[in-house]
Amino acid sequence: MPMLRPDLEIISQWIKPCTRMLDLGCGDGTLLHHLRETKQVESYGLEIDDENITRCIQSCVNVIQMDIDTGLSDFDADSFDYVVMSQTLQAMQHPDRILDEMLRVGREGIVTFPNFGHWLNRLQITFGGNMPVSRVLPEPWYATPNIHLCTLRDFEQLCAEKSIRILQRTVVNSAHRTSPLMHSLPNLFAEIALYRFQRG
Amino acid sequence: MPDTIPRNSVGLVTPQTRHFDTPLTLDCERVLSEYDLIYETYGKLNTDHSNAVLICHALSSDHHAAGYHRTEDRKPGWWDSCIGPGKPIDTNRFFVVCPNNLGGCKGSTGPTTINPETGKRYGPDFPIVTVADWVRSQARLADQLGIERWAAVIGGSLGGMQALQWAIHFPKRLGHSIIIAAAPKLSAQNIAFNEVARQAIMSDPDFHEGRYYEFDTAPRRGLKLARMLGHITYLSDESMRTKFGRELREGKINYGFDVEFQVESYLRYQGDSFVDRFDANTYLLMTKALDYFDPASAADGDLAAALKPVQAHFLVFSFTSDWRFAPARSREIVKALTDGDNPVAYAEVEAHQGHDAFLMPIPQYIKLFRAYMNRVAEEIA
To answer: Helices B280-292 and B220-234, interaxial angle, to 10°?
Structure first.
């Protein structure tokens, strides 16, 4: 089996075997395929991109073509153990509503997103006066799909407002490694944040 | 036919007929004591009989799904875009079977067949057949062909409804159900269109309560109207605009009721050519089968409950501009399948051709269809 992308590896460690999962923006279906093969996780992936749909079908992943910005009304409440959204939250029209939707259809939610509070981003804005471009945010401002970027603090504030209970947080750099500095000052040094959460 | 047979065509094909003399009890509780099914096959059945694929046809099509009957045929079978060597339903790998449904008018027993009890054509006395009746008759054909389990049952529109019914009715007898541009039941609007089509046929003075054969005539005007109406629902507003716009045949308005706009000419042509090749009583029956299709009704309207027995893997396709069976209708099927934890892949293909898109070689559709059928072929290899 090919090596899993490190953030997906972290997510897959969080997911218990023989559970049901929904992956929002499942890409080429790598995570779903991996979890089915290694942990007998039954899953569906939602995806909008034609190329990714084809790859999911090639790897026998249950993929459903739809725009998750339109909501998850095709899924009943409490249908899944986990609802995962990796590197997509910041590209959603309504990130706050999708968090509600995730916890309506699933018992637990898992999201990953690029931390806009990373010191390099702050430096670029403060001294360069430009919108940041980095390894995790490679597109210029006019071409980025990331319309709702946030920092760790922003995300955690939103969770607090919504009474969402954060169960687990992991922070990594773009090489998906972690460091003591990142642990002591995550909002300044983490490039990517991973959260597992449930209804409060 | 083109001068040389294209390499990806199944080439010249000859239909075959099977006679069945075990009585078939229909949903309407009437019994067909004996009947024929005409069908075509493409490709070779492998030694363990595991590579068979059933193609279910839609309202006005038949058993001639691919290839040519005669060298002088202008057009190939109705689904030649998807069936053939190297095509998504690859006849180098699959043994493809496509029967004409009971009640049809192309060789399977239907209203134009002689009723053995009366010595006259069945006409309006032919029993109303349902999607489930077709599935049961197709299963008997499978028995005769030595096919215990289909690798896949595939259909578009009314054919997709049969593919869904197969998965419910004979869960162990198919590996995959591929449902294209279909719906789990008709909407009131769908039924309304069917009713107008039926009224057009039945109010034609040449209908003679369905016994028009005895008067050596046919309700041609009514059937033509029914087809014209149906055709509008097969196309999208956009595809009609692209194809015809408001183009005038003679380049100017004549202030009369003759054909002026190209779209009028097209619809009249479609209607006229249809009445030469289709039977009005069959058209009535097919629209009724559509109206009655509602597998959820067996489970108090709960489609997910009705789908409990299924074991097949599903592929569901819809097309963005299809308003006859819009993507939302396909998603009802997908929702019921995911509610029951059934394996399903769903693609909503961007297409401007309307309901007819399922017959067209749309690149993304063909690509996904091929990718899925590769999987099916690998499973049985």
So the answer is: 40
